[in-house]
Write a structure and sequence with these properties.
With about 230 residues, this protein is mainly alpha-helical. Helix content is about 70%, strand content about 5%. It starts with 11 loop residues before the first helix and ends with a helix. Keywords: Membrane, Transmembrane, Transmembrane helix.
């Protein structure tokens, strides 16, 4: 990154404009948004086998079924913590390579906190609901989808967008959260044909695909800026 010197007696408006331009360049050079999205996409894809094989399903002869998604609790907490640590390290290395500072620590902390939040919520649900079965209104189900690991990814991305002052990332995250909060079934009735396990895959597939497309888009945009 290069800058042009401004004479001390120059136009104050021009000086202010140059300072703003320089600050914008610094923020832009600090961004490795594509890497964060790529790591999170890989983590989401890798979590699918754990959710599939780690789910316990018990169906009564009368047709009612109970299930417990133990694989989510075994895989996602350590996977997300490692992902946020890797993203933080990459941001710091990329910033230092350009002689800049990195403000990625709040994002990593937010990622750790949201991981702890979803883990606590899922553990509480696993302990409570088997003995207290009940039906929920739609707004509760929306909140439940937000408390999924891929929902918490979106919440943490909002913090990253704020740190980077990255309007495109903010817009992407808003769209991503809309996908997460909307029930996704691909228009199919999964239970009779594919079983309860398969009914949870569409949401993860859509989330991972959105993160992959976002990573590709931000990587392409960064290459064009050089």
């Amino acid at each position: 990154m290069t800058t042009e010197s401004v004479p001390a007696g120059g136009d104050p408006r021009r000086l202010l404009s140059d300072v703003r331009t320089l600050a914008h360049r610094v923020r832009r050079d600090q961004r490795v948004t594509w890497f964060a999205l790529l790591v999170l996409a890989v983590v989401t894809l890798a979590g699918m086998p754990f959710d599939w094989y780690g789910m316990k399903v018990h169906c009564a002869p009368g047709g009612g079924c109970e299930f417990a998604r133990r694989g989510v609790l075994l895989y996602w907490p350590p996977a997300l913590l490692l992902a946020y640590a890797a993203i933080a390290v990459w941001y710091v290395r990329a910033a230092r390579a350009r002689g800049l500072g990195a403000r990625v620590l709040p994002y990593a902390i937010t990622g750790a906190l949201t991981t702890a939040l979803f883990t606590a919520a899922w553990v509480a649900a696993a302990l409570y609901f088997p003995s207290h079965p009940q039906r929920f209104p739609e707004w509760v189900l929306v909140f439940d989808r937000l408390l999924t690991p891929w929902g918490m990814i979106g919440v943490a991305l909002l913090v990253l967008a704020r740190l980077e002052r990255n309007v495109p990332l903010l817009a992407f995250t808003a769209g991503y959260l809309v996908l997460v909060l909307a029930p996704v079934t691909f228009g199919m009735d999964f239970e009779p044909r594919w079983g309860i396990r398969a009914a949870f895959l569409p949401q993860q597939i859509v989330s991972a695909a959105a993160l992959l497309l976002g990573a590709a888009g931000f990587a392409l945009a960064r290459r064009r800026q050089r």
